[in-house]
Write a structure and sequence with these properties.
about 5% strand; mainly alpha; flat; two-stranded antiparallel sheet; 8 helices
Length: about 240
């Protein structure tokens, strides 16, 4: 019993000493998720509008994008983008005004991770926004048209503000999923929370201690993010307004 307790104290001491290193990885994880969520929002919202109000050709094109990024695993996309697409683009050479030009894309593992997670999140966020837009009564858009308001203005000023409020619970779910998926970016060399926990566990052979610490930090980051989004949902709620 004494030996087991001493070993436990040694593990706690080792983890405590490595906490600054681990916490910096947690900050990288948070940054990756937030940037990916932002990219997903910037791309996903216009795609949702295009799927609801766009022409059939545009809806089909967006549907292919959503189908691809929802159907291919994150790990495959990370390898495909970072080791496949980037490498192939760097092999392209062409002549410009008599000079040989070679593409040199120096994309860091962190940047590639944010891009891949953001593109994937855009596919999921577009469906969150599409569902929220479709839940808005169509009579509101018809009333705006009757008043002479252009469709684009009506969508931006009437439909989207309501849809964004309704999309916050879906955002909360997407945030949780994206945070868990971010643990895979360590395969590219991104020194996030998972990569640093793995490095310390391998170096000290304190595997349970560091992986439990990583799990607790992921849980804490998830809980704080979900709580913040719930606060945002309460703040954006309009008293007396109910969605039918």
């Amino acid at each position: 019993m004494t030996e087991a307790f001493a070993a436990f104290l040694d593990s706690v001491s080792t983890v405590y000493g490595a906490m600054p290193f681990i916490l910096y990885g947690a900050l990288i994880t948070i940054g990756t998720v937030l940037l990916a969520m932002l990219l997903g929002f910037v791309l996903g919202l216009p795609m949702a509008v295009g799927q609801v109000y766009g022409r059939p050709a545009l809806r089909r094109l967006i549907g292919i994008y959503v189908w691809f990024f929802r159907g291919v695993p994150i790990l495959v996309l990370l390898y495909l983008f970072y080791f496949g697409l980037t490498y192939q683009l760097n092999q392209i050479e062409f002549s410009l005004f008599g000079k040989l030009v070679k593409i040199n894309l120096n994309i860091s593992a962190f940047t590639a991770s944010c891009i891949v997670l953001g593109l994937t999140s855009a596919a999921y966020q577009s469906q969150i926004f599409r569902g929220a837009i479709n839940s808005i009564p169509s009579g509101q858009l018809k009333a705006a048209r009757a008043l002479g308001m252009p469709d684009g203005t009506a969508i931006v000023r009437i439909v989207l503000p309501q849809a964004l409020r309704l999309a916050i619970p879906g955002w909360s779910n997407e945030y949780s999923i994206l945070l868990k998926d971010s643990a895979l970016v360590s395969v590219l060399g991104t020194m996030d929370l998972m990569a640093r926990a793995k490095a310390m566990a391998t170096g000290t052979e304190e595997y349970p201690a560091f992986y439990i610490t990583a799990a607790l930090l992921y849980f804490l980051i998830t809980a704080l993010g979900v709580r913040a989004l719930r606060k945002a949902e309460q703040f954006a709620r309009i008293p007396g307004y109910t969605q039918h």
